[in-house]
Inverse folding.
């Protein structure tokens, strides 16, 4: 039986098929919310979605490569909060913003390094280690600003979150830059090949000469750094240092990565798919807000979408295996 070449090209590759499916889901969501609320399909609203989704895309890009290497980082939401609070505290005390921002990024790198080193050197589950780091980083944020939101920040505090270069808001430009770097690294560099090798079979990667420990630690350091950058984007946009920001952020990041087609078993994933997954999460939240849905129901909707994505991931894997067996 003759197959349509375009359809065969799509279904012949698991990642390609997953990307097409998630893109169709995104388009259906846009169509549905546009029908429910005319304000959804406006340039202003799309700009708001892009700005709100930028921190998610930044952190999810780093989470993608961690999960490709069969890892997981549950601490990103708390690292986001702790890093932004550190930057805000230093800015209030008169430290120049570049140094305050650098301190925030370094804190994220430090927490990421601790996560990676413990996971790799002590052979502890990444779920346990990063769950502990989640509590430590959140506690650090509250210790720095106990039950208080930092205000009185310098005028140029919003230089990242609210400024623009020409018609392009800075958060969107940063997200595009991070995506471009991660896409290039994963697809065009030796280090990117090492990431997929570690996720596919860690022992085989080690025997083939890959420095598995260094690769994994580097990925966790970058995850912490990107969580810190996401925190700076978010906190400079809202104009305050709040230890409560980022609660549940790690679940949104993981949801975006899984919806985007990164395999839970490691070894497979694409940055483009993660971007689409992050936009789906952002569109879902924005559309439900415009439709007047209560925030608590939004959590329910996000949970349903995440479970559905896992089910689709499993079905796609089974379908690819069946096609491989027939071939």
């Amino acid at each position: 039986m003759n197959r349509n070449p375009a359809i065969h090209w799509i279904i012949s590759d698991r990642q390609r098929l997953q990307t097409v499916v998630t893109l169709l889901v995104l388009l259906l969501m846009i169509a549905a919310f546009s029908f429910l609320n005319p304000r959804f399909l406006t340039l202003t609203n799309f700009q708001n979605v892009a700005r709100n989704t930028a921190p998610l895309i930044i952190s999810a890009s780093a989470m993608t490569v961690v999960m490709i290497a069969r890892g997981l980082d549950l601490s990103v939401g708390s690292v986001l909060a702790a890093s932004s609070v550190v930057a805000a505290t230093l800015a209030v005390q008169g430290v120049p913003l570049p140094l305050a921002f650098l301190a925030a990024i370094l804190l994220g790198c430090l927490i990421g390094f601790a996560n990676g080193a413990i996971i790799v050197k002590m052979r502890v589950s990444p779920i346990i280690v990063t769950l502990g780091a989640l509590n430590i980083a959140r506690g650090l944020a509250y210790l720095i600003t106990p039950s208080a939101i930092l205000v009185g920040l310098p005028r140029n505090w919003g230089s990242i979150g609210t400024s623009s270069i020409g018609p392009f808001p800075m958060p969107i430009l940063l997200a595009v830059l991070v995506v471009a770097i991660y896409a290039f690294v994963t697809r065009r560099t030796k280090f990117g090949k090492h990431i997929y090798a570690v996720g596919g079979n860690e022992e085989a990667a080690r025997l083939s000469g890959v420095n598995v420990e260094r690769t994994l630690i580097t990925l966790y350091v970058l995850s912490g750094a990107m969580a810190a950058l996401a925190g700076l984007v978010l906190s400079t946009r809202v104009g305050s240092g709040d230890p409560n920001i980022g609660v549940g952020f790690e679940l949104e990041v993981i949801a975006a990565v899984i919806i985007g087609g990164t395999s839970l078993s490691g070894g497979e994933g694409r940055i483009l798919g993660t971007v689409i997954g992050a936009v789906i999460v952002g569109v879902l939240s924005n559309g439900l807000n415009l439709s007047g849905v209560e925030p608590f129901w939004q959590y329910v909707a996000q949970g349903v979408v995440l479970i559905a994505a896992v089910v689709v991931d499993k079905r796609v894997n089974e379908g690819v295996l069946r096609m491989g067996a027939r071939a």
In short: The longest strand covers residues 164-165. The chain has a mean pLDDT of 89.
